[in-house]
Amino acid sequence: MPDVNLSVTLAGMTMKNPVVVASGTFGFGREYSQFFDLSELGGICAKGLTLLPREGNPAPRIAETPMGILNSVGLQNPGVDAFITEELPFLRQYDTKVIANISGNTPEEYGIMCEKLAGAGVDMIEVNISCPNVKAGGLAYGTRPELAAEVTHVAKAHAGQVPVMVKLSPNVTDITEIARAVEGAGADAISLINTIRGMRIDVNTRRPILKMNTGGLSGPAVLPVAVRMVWEVAQAVKVPILGMGGVSRGEDAAQLMLAGASAVAVGTALFADPYTPLKVRDGLAVLAAGQGLAAVRELTGKVLPW
Amino acid sequence: MPDVNLSVTLAGMTMKNPVVVASGTFGFGREYSQFFDLSELGGICAKGLTLLPREGNPAPRIAETPMGILNSVGLQNPGVDAFITEELPFLRQYDTKVIANISGNTPEEYGIMCEKLAGAGVDMIEVNISCPNVKAGGLAYGTRPELAAEVTHVAKAHAGQVPVMVKLSPNVTDITEIARAVEGAGADAISLINTIRGMRIDVNTRRPILKMNTGGLSGPAVLPVAVRMVWEVAQAVKVPILGMGGVSRGEDAAQLMLAGASAVAVGTALFADPYTPLKVRDGLAVLAAGQGLAAVRELTGKVLPW
Amino acid sequence: MKVERECKIVSKEQVGDAVYMTLEVGDMIRASFRAPGQFVHIRCGEGLLLRRPISVCSCMEDEPDDLLSIVFEVRGEGTRWLAGRELGDSLDVLGLAGNGFDLKPEGRYLLVGGGIGIPPMLGCAQYTGGRATAILGGRSRDKIILEDFFREDCAKVLCATDDGSLGHHGFVDALVRRELSEDRGYDGVLACGPKPMLRNVAKVAEEFGIPCQVSMEERMGCGVGACLVCACDMADGSRKHVCKDGPVFDSREVDWDA
Amino acid sequence: MKVERECKIVSKEQVGDAVYMTLEVGDMIRASFRAPGQFVHIRCGEGLLLRRPISVCSCMEDEPDDLLSIVFEVRGEGTRWLAGRELGDSLDVLGLAGNGFDLKPEGRYLLVGGGIGIPPMLGCAQYTGGRATAILGGRSRDKIILEDFFREDCAKVLCATDDGSLGHHGFVDALVRRELSEDRGYDGVLACGPKPMLRNVAKVAEEFGIPCQVSMEERMGCGVGACLVCACDMADGSRKHVCKDGPVFDSREVDWDA
Ligand SMILES: Cc1cc2nc3c(=O)[nH]c(=O)nc-3n(C[C@H](O)[C@H](O)[C@H](O)COP(=O)(O)OP(=O)(O)OC[C@H]3O[C@@H](n4cnc5c(N)ncnc54)[C@H](O)[C@@H]3O)c2cc1C
Ligand SMILES: Cc1cc2nc3c(=O)[nH]c(=O)nc-3n(C[C@H](O)[C@H](O)[C@H](O)COP(=O)(O)OP(=O)(O)OC[C@H]3O[C@@H](n4cnc5c(N)ncnc54)[C@H](O)[C@@H]3O)c2cc1C
Ligand SMILES: Cc1cc2nc3c(=O)[nH]c(=O)nc-3n(C[C@H](O)[C@H](O)[C@H](O)COP(=O)(O)O)c2cc1C
Ligand SMILES: Cc1cc2nc3c(=O)[nH]c(=O)nc-3n(C[C@H](O)[C@H](O)[C@H](O)COP(=O)(O)O)c2cc1C
Ligand code: FES
Ligand code: FES
Q1: Whether residue D243 has its Cβ less than 6 Å from ligand 6
Q2: Does residue D54 sit in the same domain as residue D122?
Q3: How many domains are there within chain D?
Q4: Closest residue in D to B54 (Cα–Cα)
Q5: Mean pLDDT throughout B202-220?
Q6: Cβ atoms of B158 and B175 closer than 8 Å
Q7: Residue C60 domain-assigned?
Q8: Number of Cβ pairs closer than 8 Å across C and D?
Q9: CA C208 from chain center: how many Å?
Q10: Is the ipTM, as predicted for this complex, more than 0.85?
Q11: Does the beta carbon of D257 lie under 8 angstroms from any beta carbon of chain B?
């Protein structure tokens, strides 16, 4: 490997390299630990947690599309308490940052989860606001600036010293509006993009492939949308960005970093190749070295718009 | 070819088959007429017109992405008058429906263009509302229901007997809101999706590939988003739908039709294979025959959601 | 410990409508074999993001490379790509995944395979050293594949076809019922095939009070238990995962009405 | 009339860093040849949506199949795929596209090719039956490809390299200046190469009042003039399209500051 400094800092959290794994694609790390040492990762965004255990949606929960996949897992998870007692100690064995990802039905639920997780000692909390707000009639928090700000505010108030990163949904007219709202409400970092809503129909059975009819699109197909949104958000806010959406090579990660991301997450690409995060890291190092950089973090925000 | 009735009707306009070519990807038909007889097409959405001639944006105007492309042509066109005198007579030689696609800076411009085109005798007018509204500070008409409705209203008022189809942008939080607004304002049909905004960066030069920095994503990558949006719109409105976005095979077209489209458009896939529209048509016929249908139009809206 | 590695195709032949392939899989069997009924997760070209799960038909430890065979039918893009690979080509294989059947080498089992669910039962037959009875079912005679192999590795082989072109005219569960009523000495019923068949077989086994294990299918992402897409509804309302908790489940655990 | 067809690769060799391929193109030359300087638009595998434009190096009508040769360098994914094709493989070729150079077979032209812009000038040399002078430029000696072919088909061949490893030490425009001042008998200058080179060559030709045509590059979609992505800025503020109006333009038409 070339001699390039790989470490990056995201909202005060220093990672040994800029590659983390995306929430929901890596479980709580146990399975992929059979393939490589988790200490090689910059960080791990754990599977999305809710206050109480959830079984998620009925199967089929996945469909393939051109260079993408749709999923409709629907936040199956053992609940925040089981995460803290059963999963966190396992993750803590590794020398990597642990980022808990949370979803709530109400702002209060976000608050309770933040308090528990801050107490348990995670490195960062990623607040997923793509889930519907039950009180606001099922409207997703992530599509309305005032709701997004409210959730962020409550999360911050209960997270103590633990930095709060808010994860934005791409299913909006103007992502910068949401980004500014959560920054204004105190978010320490922003991650994006979550999945884009899509659908696939089996033309023979005439049934949607997913039992939920629609699901979230991820994978290489969405990379150009992710790059655009990271770039727009980077210009709109000052907080650091964790970029994701379709990364499968060092070059993809470099695009997101140039657009403004301080670090990147790899999700869907894991399913084709479990070693993708390490290959992305190495690819970034080679690319940075080839450009004569001393550190990979020098890429962040360095796009030269026309 | 199997013995299946291919004809479909879109807002009273009967087409010999459900496959049209998407605006901006087929010019005014002259070039692809070198490859096949344009009379084989259900219809032709001509390149987007503006009131006055426009040279469009500087190059590069295209970038490749995983199973997609980005474009930033920016409505280069000879203006509506030159279309009527130079291009329409050429298109009229063929036994196919001619759909003019228009973009304006103000509602008034849409009105003037509709009047001219209705007078010249096009079969349908497709109103592109993805362009920024100069008066409303550059906000795209297609992202605000009230603006979309205003443009539709003015277009309808000036289009006489010619049906008006409004083309929706997918870059919105809730596509059904826009669809209902344009239906309410009198749209005879709705077409979707236009391109999704994206970006690609050359990691070596650190420049966006497109001179405009960002552009519109199209091609197979967007198919699942198109299917989802057509399905949502089909449930929200009663007017017929022209579905598009990533169609390259009969199966893709069938997905859009099952989701609710009465006809489909093929765009980006033409660049890889000029014969795609005919292959999509034939693929649809085979698929419908395989399902024992007497007519391809029986597919429309027949998805069986779970 | 699971592995992901390039595995060379060392034999390929057509069996009925299906393709039979043998792969050199390095130390994959030594490293991750647990029981017959596990599967491999195979990458089908650069253009497809998702691997395809295919059951292990039979496998053996060997030097320098363990050997593993799979049998699959062309259903869509991925299996079409797979069927196009030739002798000497390499496949990107992740495995062995899943748990397989819970069975004792010295046990006596009634193995039930339907259609493309037949091949994984061969591994069970071999594992239990000739003691098993196999019931193979399919739509018609040409869907009953690998019968000769089963005759080699089983005490008894029965066939059923929907159209009566081979063996019993009807479904396998009728043969299961006959066999269980004539012979009370089975330690269990192990089944793989389409869900309606599994449900019917499970019902018969339950009637006779014989434990029954079924191999379930579901669309997969990671194949290792991390992404949670391959949910299988359980009778108790919970959801387990085919790739990690399965693909084999106790028939009484499964919610057959889901 | 343009065609899109499968074309068999009947020769393939390495020339310097570039790949030289000859294709059997059916009646493509008979149907669509206009002049040297046209290009073909080649599909580079299923995974890439956009075809890649490659200039015709030389071509000839033949029976049963016309022959066409291309020379290309590996720059990215598409050309890497192309370079991986072997003798006997088929390529999906759309062509001939574009207009080519406006030249008379009996004219005397100064042909200027830089780097991978050298090959298309060979077609011009052959078309004008040995009367042309060729000036070939490149970074170093190994970038000057096809020199022997040019010697066969030209009255005179001059070379320039940035590093002086072959011929004149410096840029081609110095040789153009020398040649035009020594020989007033040229009907025109025809050039293909990187944009800065084209601009400099055009400037020199203009000084001498000799008409100059340049072959421009731009990223393409359809390759036939329908999608309007391949815009080239003109001096008069309009935008023309490389694939349809070009790739060859009169040097005075082009906006060199864009
Ligand atoms: C544990 C397990 C073991 C299997 N063993 C075998 C075997 O030994 N032989 C065999 O022929 N088939 C087997 N299958 C089914 C096989 O995985 C599918 O036929 C195959 O995935 C179809 O892929 P495709 O690309 O050809 O079809 P497509 O329909 O194009 O596939 C599209 C997507 O749907 C998924 N999919 C489609 N059908 C199935 C299915 N029945 N089960 C799971 N995913 C599906 C694919 O994996 C892919 O992600 C098994 C499935 C599972 C879950
Ligand atoms: C009219 C014309 C004639 C050409 N003739 C030749 C030739 O004879 N030999 C040769 O080696 N090259 C030629 N080129 C350049 C050649 O088209 C590019 O090198 C090639 O497209 C790069 O594709 P890629 O996939 O390897 O690179 P990538 O960078 O991966 O390509 C990504 C995209 O950018 C486009 N692109 C990248 N570079 C260029 C470029 N310089 N010009 C146009 N599009 C580009 C590609 O077509 C593709 O759409 C010509 C270009 C044009 C416009
Ligand atoms: C199977 C699956 C499950 C996911 N679950 C979650 C989740 O629980 N919480 C969350 O914030 N994002 C979730 N995501 C979104 C990813 O974290 C990521 O934002 C998205 O997939 C884009 O990245 P990718 O293209 O690299 O996969 C999930 C994605 C997939 C594919
Ligand atoms: C090069 C290009 C130019 C386009 N120009 C227009 C246009 O002028 N007006 C318009 O309404 N849509 C335009 N579009 C959008 C297409 O009509 C279509 O909505 C979109 O490309 C999705 O379909 P596809 O994936 O089949 O290409 C253009 C698309 C492309 C690729
Ligand atoms: S496929 Fe990922 S958990 Fe089963
Ligand atoms: S590439 Fe489409 S107009 Fe030139």
Answers
A1: yes
A2: no
A3: 2
A4: D238
A5: 97
A6: no
A7: yes
A8: 3
A9: 24
A10: yes
A11: no
